[in-house]
């Protein structure tokens, strides 16, 4: 049974799953724009989590990108992550979660630069701290041999941070270099966020 991936063109969570499955041409990608009323209504109707991505394997729904990765790893017999790799992926995912929280607050009209809210400041503090944690690992990765879910996840995160203007990654030259080195990997150009 072919997999169906339901997601948006802008979500970094969706993008990293698209990149993981890029070589599998049997996967159907079903785009949804949840910022529009019709897309939001559709998403709420099919997904109790009310988030993207969502995957279907036949009638089996899968609601979270980390669970999707684990499911695909098992289904396709991919090598499981080591504990060190799990920690890197958790750092990438936590950075992304904090940035998405900030983006959602900003989109909702909240001034995230006011400097007077514990939750907001905690999210903002995580970004440079976790990116610094990830950097030594990122410097060791090479496109020819390390194009995998971790590097796909990091690329998706960094691209999205720049696209949404959530964080200036130029503060981390080694991560800018990472993006430059990995920008020609399979599926990257094809999954870029479409220009408006």
UniProtKB/TrEMBL annotation:
An annotated Gene Ontology molecular function: transferase activity
PROSITE patterns: GST_NTER
Protein name according to UniProt: Glutathione S-transferase
Hydrolase is among the record's keywords: no
Gene3D superfamilies the UniProt entry points to: 1.20.1050.10, Glutaredoxin (3.40.30.10)
Superkingdom of origin: Bacteria
Keyword S-adenosyl-L-methionine: no
InterPro entries: Glutathione-S-Trfase_C_sf (IPR036282), Glutathione_S-Trfase_N (IPR004045), Thioredoxin-like_sf (IPR036249)
Alphabetical UniProt keywords: Transferase
SUPFAM superfamilies with a match to the protein in the record: GST C-terminal domain-like, Thioredoxin-like
Alphabetized Pfam families for the sequence: GST_N_3 (PF13417)
């Amino acid at each position: 049974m072919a997999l169906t991936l339901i997601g948006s063109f802008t979500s970094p969570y969706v993008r990293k799953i698209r990149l993981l499955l890029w070589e599998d041409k049997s996967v159907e990608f079903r785009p949804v724009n949840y910022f529009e009323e019709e897309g939001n209504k559709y998403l709420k109707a099919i997904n109790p989590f009310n988030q993207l991505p969502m995957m279907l394997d036949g009638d089996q729904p899968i609601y979270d990108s980390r669970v999707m990765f684990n499911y695909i790893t098992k289904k396709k017999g991919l090598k499981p992550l080591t504990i060190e790799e799990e920690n890197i992926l958790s750092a990438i995912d936590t950075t992304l979660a904090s940035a998405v929280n900030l983006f959602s607050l900003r989109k909702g009209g909240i001034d995230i630069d006011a400097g007077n809210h514990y939750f907001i400041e905690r999210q903002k503090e995580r970004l440079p701290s976790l990116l610094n944690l990830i950097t030594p690992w990122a410097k060791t990765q090479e496109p020819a041999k390390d194009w995998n879910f971790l590097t796909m996840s990091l690329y998706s995160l960094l691209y999205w941070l720049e696209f949404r203007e959530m964080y200036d990654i130029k503060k981390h030259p080694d991560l800018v270099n990472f993006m430059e080195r990995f920008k020609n990997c399979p599926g990257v150009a094809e999954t870029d966020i479409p220009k408006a």
